[in-house]
């Protein structure tokens, strides 16, 4: 584990007990809908091409729904959705619901309803399936699924 990682990992854990992660944060994965207000959307057309512009409020709400989300990729091996879901739930053994989302370029997003499950998957690396490493990184607005390899890897 890198020195930088060890430096901020205790901030994610209960300061009084370094082996126990706080699980006071639970979120629902059932409703990611965003209630839009009249001023939240601007539509139009430029040079014959329609466009939609969302307000900063909508962008912030969308980003907030990604709070406990990790970006995963199996290096050197393609894995189907069902196989990957079964494998990661088997090795992580989450205590609460997770949602797996298959996105382009062999990346997956995993949304956690539990902070402790999120921290476990993020910090107790490395993870492997079929002898191949799973890259794990927190989702960020800078994530680009068109990159062949993740921009940040937890070590």
Which key terms come to mind for this protein?
155 residues, alpha+beta, Alpha-Beta Plaits, five-stranded antiparallel beta sheet, two-stranded antiparallel sheet, 4 helices, 7 strands, 25% strand, disordered N terminus, DUF4283, DUF4283 domain-containing protein
Topology (SSEs and partners):
Layout: H1 3-12, E1 41-46, E2 49-54, H2 56-64, E3 69-74, H3 81-92, E4 98-102, E5 107-112, H4 115-123, E6 127-129, E7 132-138
Pfam families: DUF4283
Protein name: DUF4283 domain-containing protein
InterPro entries: At4g02000-like (IPR040256), DUF4283 (IPR025558)
Tell me what the structure shows:
With 155 residues, the chain is an alpha+beta fold. The protein has a domain of 102 residues: Alpha-Beta Plaits (2-Layer Sandwich), CATH 3.30.70. Helices cover 26% and strands 25% of the residues. It contains 4 helices and 7 strands. The chain has a 5-stranded antiparallel β-sheet with strand order 4-5-3-7-6. Strands 1-2 form a two-stranded antiparallel sheet. The longest helix is centred in the middle third of the chain and has 12 residues. The N terminus is likely disordered.
